[in-house]
Amino acid sequence: MQKNCSNCKQGRKVVIIGCGFVGAASAFALMQSGLFSEMVLIDSEKSKAEGEALDISHGVPFAKPVKIYAGGYDDVNDADLIVLTAGANQKPGETRLDLVKKNISIFKVILPQIKQSGFHGILLVVANPVDILTTVAIKCSGLPENHVLGSGTVLDTARLKYELGNHLNVDPRSVHAFIIGEHGDSEIAAWSSANVSGIELNKFCEMRGHFHHEEAMEKIANDVKNSAYEIIEKKKATYYGIAMSVKRICEAIMRDEKSILPISWMMHGDYGIEGISLSMPAIVGKDGVETHVPIQLNEAEAQKLRQSAQTLKDILSQNEI
Q1: Helix (H, G, I), strand (E, B) or coil at 170
Q2: Residues in Cβ contact with 35 at an 8 Å cutoff, skipping those fewer than 6 apart
Q3: Is residue 296 part of a domain?
Q4: Does residue 101 or residue 109 have the better pLDDT?
Q5: Is residue 33 part of a domain?
Q6: Looking at the 3D structure of the chain, how many domains does it have?
Q7: Is 120 in the active site?
Q8: Tens of pLDDT along 140-175?
């Protein structure tokens, strides 16, 4: 029997906007999660949303009861959570930042409809470039700032934990490390705060017979940064990893877990950064983002973080919101 949770959100309705690879995979992951009793799929191509809803619904007998259907923005008002994945796909050879103009234009169509619906829940931005689009959503959605967050570097951080787990032959769930900054080419591996079950990373590496720390850290960080490009080159898109990341963030929100996740959210002076959403560890619960969590960074990492923020601000300044 499922236990009652006094801290869980009482409503259980999610809307997924955008039924491409990421939206459909996220819907599939959320169907299996048991977090929601109602799921609405919205897409500019209505038949695509209908097809995905029908296909995913056929798996409900193997999961927990959930009503899944294609809908429109008149279904948004009473939702607890919107997962916004709509946007152009990243093509081979493109960076996430190459998608800025196309996806800001798409958001300018979607966000006013969300605002007009009277939606007052949590908006989770997943489309890329997620840090810039989270800033756009905060400014244009009409929602309280803490109710708008991006998927940020939750997936990058999972990739880092996976690579470190392989390197050390240890369960990646025992690895505590973050990728911060841009979800993209200027992302930073926060090595100075990394540890394995409380043991400083270099010390644990030496316990496992690894002594070339700088070389290993550079390779792992590059592998994490380039992993999306490798996947896109091989199979044209990435969607399973981000779908699991969406599920994890939704769990933290719907269960009011107060989990610390490296989501994208507006910066207000931390590390000297102001006025741009950036992926940093934050406490996430039923009301969205509670606060940033100040992790230990050395001066080189802090400087790279500021440079990452400036890269995003410069690009955003070239695009009207």
Answers
A1: coil
A2: 12, 14, 247, 250, 251, 254, 255
A3: yes
A4: 109
A5: yes
A6: 2
A7: no
A8: 999 999 999 999 999 999 999 999 999 999 999 999
